[in-house]
Amino acid sequence: DRVCQHIHYLVTAPGHKPLVTQLYFATDPVFEGDPDKNFNRDPLIHNRELVRPVMLVGDPKDIHAAVNFELCLERV
Questions:
Q1: Contact (CB, 8 A) for 28 and 50
Q2: In the chain, how many domains are there?
Q3: How far apart are CA 18 and CA 73, in angstroms?
Q4: Are 31 and 41 a contacting pair, CB within 8 Å?
Q5: Which of 13, 17, 36, 70 is the least buried, fewest Cβ under 10 Å from its Cβ?
Q6: pLDDT of 27-70, one tens digit each?
Q7: 2 DSSP assignment
Q8: How many CA atoms lie within 13 A of 60 on its CB side?
Q9: In the predicted model, is pLDDT for residue 18 greater than 90?
Q10: Are 41 and 62 in contact (CB under 8 A)?
Q11: What pLDDT score does 39 carry?
């Protein structure tokens, strides 16, 4: 068994509760091309929204991978 590729976040802002979360990549082989169906193969992923699509951006000589992930902080 292999852990899915992911990034951890710790986000803080004055007047808000700290947020700790992670983002998973939909292109990870664990999801076998269908994260909607297979996201629960990793026991740490409790919500499909944590698995985000990966987009390739840039020109052919300078391609980057981009992922959009919305973070919402709760006020204290």
A1: no
A2: 1
A3: 7
A4: yes
A5: 70
A6: 999 899 999 888 888 888 888 898 999 999 999 999 999 999 88
A7: -
A8: 0
A9: yes
A10: no
A11: 87
In a domain, 56, yes or no: yes
Looking at residue 1, what is its pLDDT? 67
Within a domain: 1: no
Query: What would the two tokens of residue 21 be?
Result: 């979360």
Burial class (CB in 10 A: 0-12, 13-18, 19+), 38: middle
Q: Are 35 and 42 in contact (CB under 8 A)?
A: no
Instruction: Kindly report the backbone phi and psi dihedral angles of residue 19, in degrees, each rounded to the nearest multiple of 5, phi listed first.
Output: -120, 130
Q: Which amino acid is at 3?
A: V
Rounded distance, CA 16 to CA 38, Å? 34
Q: Which pLDDT belongs to residue 53?
A: 92
3-state DSSP assignment of residue 31: helix
Supply the range of the domain harboring residue 29: 6-66
